[in-house]
């Protein structure tokens, strides 16, 4: 654990030194954060190949508008998530950083803390819909206190319930549940109707799927500062708060009564397991519908039998807050054409481009999510989840796999019969050791 913390700190220190030594780095005035002086120039932009495969027309439209506005060309260099941060670290250290980059929203804090991204606070209002950005995506691109913006939301993914419509209907459940009481009643019926199926889960909730468990805690405690909050210069964990424990007890009740997921598994294999036929529902990202029915890894015969709905919340008419994953966009402080890079991001995330992207993924602002839901009826649940309350991990570079292990251990122990308050207090103490260095 200490080696991981030391490694993060070392990278941060070196990145700061690299940024400060660059001739184009450092704090920029509002006048030069955005630039249109690009005649005869070409900027380099790193984007994940998800866009190349899914919404390349958005990229091309942004390139054309950027060319018209600045006179500059754009060299899109397609990336993959495998070893991406290592490649980015190397580019930042070498002084050959791209002019704009995509970064996962759980990765952004490390670079923000290292002062590796241009401060966009002074021009945030010049980005379309910046006052309506999805909460969790916006938070991931900010300083821990939320006062400064260093990364711009790009697109998101939200977790919902993915279910076998045929199994629910065969059990007499013809409408997707909208309350926690309706959900429990539906799962009870589905469980009874499939009592003869070995290892059947009406809802697969493996003990170490901490994303889903924390969502229930956020539903009672609240999404702000869920897991941990900044208290002066230190972090304080909120896992042991009675309201959080109350939500976890609801999750524990569901996993005990309706899941055969066990205590040592997480959600990593749930798509393939659901395809085998003895799972009626899972909690996963919307794209997992395609994974369950994938001809290579799943069962294509399930394609038209799968549906989605938002996980109901504790209060009537509410939904359980979803963890919102996704990507941000930023400009490295030592980019050679930082001002043009920022202008490309301004254009790439404007209303026109984000509305076009909404045909394929959840756009970056709440007011544009309706376009995503209108693109396909199957998008309604994930769109509703993104527009509702969402939560995110503590915004600190010290968040790591060690923290996730502490959460997995706690929820696995609870699923095994441990007392929720006791196990969450242990996780609470473990997290504070890591988050406070």
Automatic annotation (TrEMBL):
GO MF annotations for this entry?
maltose binding
Indicate yes or no for the key word Secreted. no
Q: Which UniProt keywords apply?
A: Signal, Transport
- Is Cytoplasm tagged as a keyword? no
Gene Ontology BP, a term: maltose transport
* Annotated Gene Ontology cellular component terms: ATP-binding cassette (ABC) transporter complex, substrate-binding subunit-containing
Which positions, given as ranges, span the membrane?
none
| Leader sequence segment | 1-19
Q: Which family does it belong to?
A: Belongs to the bacterial solute-binding protein 1 family.
Q: What is this protein called?
A: N,N'-diacetylchitobiose transport system substrate-binding protein
**Native source species:** Kitasatospora cineracea
